[in-house]
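I am still getting used to backbone structure tokens and would like to learn alongside you. Label the sequence line and the structure token line clearly, so we can match residues to local backbone shapes. Go ahead whenever you are ready, and we will take it from there:
>
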Amino acid sequence: MTLDPNDLRTYPVQEKPCKTCPFSGEKPLPLSPSDLVMYYQNLMGNGQHICHSTNNTKICRGGRNIQLKWLCSIGFLGEPTDEAFNEAVNWALNNKESATSTTHD
């Protein structure tokens, strides 16, 4: 699959956090408090965090793990897994398309 910057579903997720992952690496990159807040806000409503150690070709595993736990805690996911995440995204997109087509008919 070709990576499409407008569709993050085309990006694979890192298998495990990289060593310098700011969220859960062995030697995390230091982040200022304001940057950390910005990254968490992005994970909890706006998108994915792209892994800095993969030349921006994969989704950050550390960030995804945080996102999965949060989405599960608010009831959006039944379990904190990539599979549940992908099912929820596909369901939301399919229902969005259905809702859009019924309002235009």
Notes: The chain has three helices and no strands. Residues 8-103 form one domain.
